[in-house]
C-alpha cells in the first residue's frame, strides 16, 4: 500500500516537474529571443546548417517538452499502445538532443584550445564513442520498457513499474563524458603558462568551467535518481535536466554565433552565468 501511494505521489511530481521545465524553457527563450533574431535569423551570412542545428536544439527540444507535459498532464487520450509509442519518441528524441547539446559543449572546449588539431581528434573520438554507447543503451532501455509499461485509466497516466536496468549505465556513460570534458578543461588550464593559482582560475573561468560543472552536477543527480529513485521521479528528473541543458547549449550557440561578428572575445567572460 505504501509503495502504491509513493508511486502515485511520484506521478504527480512528474506532472509538476514537467510543467516547471516547460515554464523555465519558455521564459529563457523569451529572454534570449532578441539575441536569437540578431545572430541566427537576421544575419543572411549564416550557414543553413547552423540554423538547422539551432532549430533542433531550441525548438525541437521545446516541442518534446510540450509533448511530455501533454502526455503526463492527464489530458491526453492514452492507452497501452500510445504509452509504448511515447517511450520510443522520448528515447529517440532524447538521443538526438543529447548528441546536439554535447556537440556544442565539445565545440566550446575545442575553441578554448585554440582549435588545435590534436584536440580536435581527441574530442571527435571521445564524442563518437560516448554518444554512440549512450544511444545504444537508450534504445535498449526503450525496448525493456515496452513489455512492462501500461496505462492506468484512474490516474490517466502511463506507468513504468521499474527503471530499466540499462538506464543507469546510459546515465553513467553521459556522466563519464562530462567528467572527461571537465578533466580536459582542467588540463588545458594548467597547461597554459601561469604564475599563480589565480591565473589557473582565470583560465578555467575563460573555458566556461561553471558551464561544464553545471552540466556535470545535473548529470550526477540524474545518475543517482536512476539508481535509487522511483521511475516517475527518474523520468521527471531527466526531463528537467534535458531542459536546463538545452537552455545552456542554446546560449552557447548564440554566443558562438555572436562572437563571429562581436567585439568581445572568448576570454571576456564565461559563456553562461550559472
From TrEMBL:
Highest taxon of the lineage:
Eukaryota
Annotated transmembrane regions: 12-31, 52-73, 85-107, 119-149, 169-190, 211-230
Domain spans labelled DUF6533: 16-60
Q: Which UniProt keywords apply?
A: Membrane, Transmembrane, Transmembrane helix
Which Pfam family name is an example for this entry? DUF6533
| Coiled-coil features, chain-numbered ranges | none
Protein's recorded name: DUF6533 domain-containing protein
**Mind giving the lineage of the organism this protein is from?**
Eukaryota, Fungi, Dikarya, Basidiomycota, Agaricomycotina
Which InterPro entries would you find in this protein's record?
Answer: DUF6533 (IPR045340)
